Amino acid sequence: MRLKKSYIILILIGALVLGGVGAFSGVKLAQSGDDGIGEGTKNFSSGLLNNKEEQLDMPSDMSKVAQAYSLIKNNYIENVKDKQLIEGAIEGMLATLEDPHSSYMDVEMMGHFNEQIESSFEGIGAEVSMVNGIVTIVAPIKDSPAEKSGLRPNDEVLSVDGESLEGLNLNEAVAKIRGEKGTDVVLEVRRAGVSEPFEVTITRDEIPVETVYNQIKTINGKKTGILEITNFSEHTFTEFNEQLNMLEKEGIEGLVIDVRGNPGGLLNVIEEILRLFVPKDMPYLQIEDANGNKTPYYSDLTEKKDYPISVLIDEGSASASEILAVAMKEMGYDIVGHNSYGKGTVQQAVPLGDGSTIKLTTNKWLSPEGNWINEVGVEPTIKVSQPDYYYTNPIIIDEPLKLDQSDEAIENMQVMLTGLGYTTGRTDGYFNEQTESAVKEFQSDNELKATGIVDQETAGLIEAKVVEHIRNGENDRQLERALEELYK
Description:
Helices cover 31% and strands 23% of the residues. The protein is α+β, with helices and mostly antiparallel strands.
């Protein structure tokens, strides 16, 4: 059974990507009828959208809505457009659900949304969601301006260019953050463990659309493949399948799949990928409807891969990433890293006939064994933290930091320098002589005047070097542990 082309199925974080043209990622969609969407998935969508009797069964007091509309149109002190009232009513109904993943997208938003699905887009490149009324980073996209600026999962965005986001819905907040390539945006960010909010200036750019990256490492004499998936978009399965085949032709004896910082993607894509790994004797996914009815979905695979596999996750791994991780975990594979985000619901985007759409949570997705990870996440079988400098924060200073001072910013700076290989002697926030020597050494190594004083220029360069180290995978303990455990 194939659904009408206008029906859309969503799964994932239900977030919006901060794209310059209003594009969204993390509310990624697949048009029903596209190859790769599970047949059962089509069935549950069709059942919802074609239930005409349910759509026409209006409550008796629905006339109150029409009465309110008439009252405002005829009596409000200023002219009000019909569109404003109608869309406001829709948004109001959705707001009462208190579900950050259900929302209304008007014609303009849907146009931008579709542009992003079909091609590259511009912006800062971060997946966001609304958590307790606050715009929250789910994950920065790999190689995006957001990642390069040091934004992290769970960072809270309080204001944009000095304007508070309080009271705005997610769509309105995203509209303020997105923008054209080459323009700057200043975000006020609150991060757990940092006493005060800080500002991050990000230059918007074109967001990369490549989603799968591969490499081969030799571990204990065994050729090992690593496949990193940054999100599950339209072409991800093709990329993944081609690169996996290439690695297998190279003779890999083990595989690590890295979905750290991956906020999710298309349902049909994660289904296709799981069909490469999960044998037909167990479901790769279950869908539960509003009545508690559960439907399992199976592959045609006769047996699992003949090499060991590990999956890397962290707090930025969400939804489709979690579908992958929990399925592989319940097959007996190691999951390495930190507990994942915890998004276990499925959304449908229902067109309203004029180009606008309601995105509504309609189902739960469950693990092969029927477990629901919503607001819980997937727990790794092997918990591993990164080096301390992976978790440092921007160095916020009003005045230069120097000898004999003691400050939270100094502690942060000491951890960064230690992570970069400089010997500060201590990381408790006291600026001692050894820290001063470390600062001078860093300044000399980076063609700065070796004063031993940390001013804005030095602080900014320390931060940039830390971000560069992290993005280059320096001292990646989680990956190292996954590779180490693969052949035990």
